[in-house]
Amino acid sequence: MATSTKPRFVEATYKPPEDVKVEVVEGVVKVVGKLGAAEENLSHTGAEITLQDGVIHVKLPGSSRRSEALLGTVVSKIKNLVKGVTEGYTYRLKIVSSHFPITVKVEGGQVIIENFLGERYRRRAKIVGDGTKVTVKGDDVIVTGINKEHVGQTAANIEQACKIKRKDPRKFLDGIYIYQKEMGIAK
């Protein structure tokens, strides 16, 4: 009676574009493209990441659904790095104020929100990462960068800084809200 055994690992491959330079050193993936350089430390995942003939090979121990899910996550993170250095990421937020005019400005590594619901103190949101840029144009706040996680976290920090407490959210719609996520660096 022959029994079939499951493989003891799951694996996937990804071929980045020709104009992108990829380097893998002990689980740290470094990617260089036309917009700059980005790196991600994936050594904590336990994945064996190798580069052979311009193709990235990712191999994970185990054959469970959890291993397959982690494999997909690792490959997606590498793809996001490549997309970031070739195209970039842009998140657009809208400033909504019906009661008091909100003033938004960028100072150093923070976004300063003044006069939110008539408050006297300033609300602050941290800008994550070195390559993340925040610009304010009228009622729009534009967050751009090459690292998807940094751009998304910065946009989330700005949105969370305007969270309303102890007021009816159906009446007080004031705040700064994400309304568009796109590929490419906005001009």
TrEMBL record:
Question: Large ribosomal subunit protein uL6 alpha-beta domain spans which residues?
Answer: 100-175
- UniProt cross-references to InterPro entries, sorted A to Z: Ribosomal_uL6-like, Ribosomal_uL6-like_a/b-dom_sf, Ribosomal_uL6_a/b-dom, Ribosomal_uL6_arc, Ribosomal_uL6_CS2
The Gene Ontology biological process annotation of the record reads:
cytoplasmic translation
The alphabetized UniProt keywords are: Ribonucleoprotein, Ribosomal protein, RNA-binding, rRNA-binding
Query: Highest taxon of the source?
Result: Archaea
Q: Which PROSITE patterns match?
A: RIBOSOMAL_L6_2
What Gene Ontology cellular-component terms does the record carry? cytosolic large ribosomal subunit
According to the UniProt entry, its GO molecular function terms are: rRNA binding; structural constituent of ribosome
Q: Does the keyword RNA-binding apply?
A: yes
Subunit structure and binding partners: Part of the 50S ribosomal subunit.
HAMAP family given in the database record? Ribosomal_uL6_A
Q: Family membership, please give it.
A: Belongs to the universal ribosomal protein uL6 family.
Described by its record, this protein's role is as follows: This protein binds to the 23S rRNA, and is important in its secondary structure. It is located near the subunit interface in the base of the L7/L12 stalk, and near the tRNA binding site of the peptidyltransferase center.
Q: State what protein this is by name.
A: Large ribosomal subunit protein uL6
